[in-house]
């Protein structure tokens, strides 16, 4: 059994990998950026730990979304249910394309959300009573990750295997 005889499955697995790896990388970058800002605040005022931790965790959702699309994809092609489906290359490419939105948007929005969360952590550092307002800024970036998640889920599930 060669890779060429399973090219459709290879493309579909690449789609799942793209969703997980890119969105996960975006989350890792974003959580790291926000964590650097959070560490500085906690160094000065340890009582703000809980508030800045929540802010730091926000960019981590993109990785969860990519993982979800990866699981849905693996289930769709039968790898989680026993035997893999016999996919033609065109169907594999469709699945790969369906996974791209959450992968690409997850990468970009994870980093952007980390930067926005770091700025919001700065608000909490100076005015902790403004925590609720500060949360809105990184939450706005989240909107686009959710939209990409929805498109990827709808596209993957709509493909006939």
Automatic annotation (TrEMBL):
<feature type="domain" description="V-ATPase proteolipid subunit C-like">
    <location>
        <begin position="96"/>
        <end position="154"/>
    </location>
</feature>
<dbReference type="InterPro" id="IPR002379">
    <property type="entry name" value="ATPase_proteolipid_c-like_dom"/>
</dbReference>
<keyword id="KW-0812">Transmembrane</keyword>
<feature type="transmembrane region" description="Helical">
    <location>
        <begin position="136"/>
        <end position="159"/>
    </location>
</feature>
<protein>
    <submittedName>
        <fullName>V-type ATP synthase subunit K</fullName>
    </submittedName>
</protein>
<dbReference type="InterPro" id="IPR035921">
    <property type="entry name" value="F/V-ATP_Csub_sf"/>
</dbReference>
<dbReference type="Pfam" id="PF00137">
    <property type="entry name" value="ATP-synt_C"/>
</dbReference>
<keyword id="KW-1133">Transmembrane helix</keyword>
<comment type="similarity">
    <text>Belongs to the V-ATPase proteolipid subunit family.</text>
</comment>
<feature type="domain" description="V-ATPase proteolipid subunit C-like">
    <location>
        <begin position="14"/>
        <end position="72"/>
    </location>
</feature>
<dbReference type="InterPro" id="IPR000245">
    <property type="entry name" value="ATPase_proteolipid_csu"/>
</dbReference>
<keyword id="KW-0813">Transport</keyword>
<feature type="transmembrane region" description="Helical">
    <location>
        <begin position="92"/>
        <end position="110"/>
    </location>
</feature>
<keyword id="KW-0406">Ion transport</keyword>
<keyword id="KW-0472">Membrane</keyword>
<feature type="transmembrane region" description="Helical">
    <location>
        <begin position="64"/>
        <end position="85"/>
    </location>
</feature>
């Amino acid at each position: 059994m060669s890779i060429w005889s399973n090219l459709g499955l290879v493309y579909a697995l690449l789609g799942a990998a793209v969703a997980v790896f890119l969105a996960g990388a975006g989350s890792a970058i974003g959580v790291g950026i926000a964590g650097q800002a959070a560490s500085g605040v906690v160094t000065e005022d340890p009582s703000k730990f809980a508030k800045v931790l929540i802010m730091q965790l926000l960019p981590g959702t993109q990785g969860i979304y990519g993982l979800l699309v990866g699981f849905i994809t693996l289930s769709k092609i039968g790898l989680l249910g026993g035997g893999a489906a016999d996919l033609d290359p065109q169907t594999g490419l469709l699945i790969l394309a369906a996974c791209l939105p959450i992968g690409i948007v997850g990468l970009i929005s994870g980093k952007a959300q980390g930067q926005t969360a770091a700025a919001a952590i700065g608000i909490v550092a100076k005015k902790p009573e403004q925590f609720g307002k500060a949360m809105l800024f990184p939450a706005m970036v989240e909107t686009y990750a959710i939209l990409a998640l929805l498109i990827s889920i709808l596209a993957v599930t709509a493909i006939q295997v």
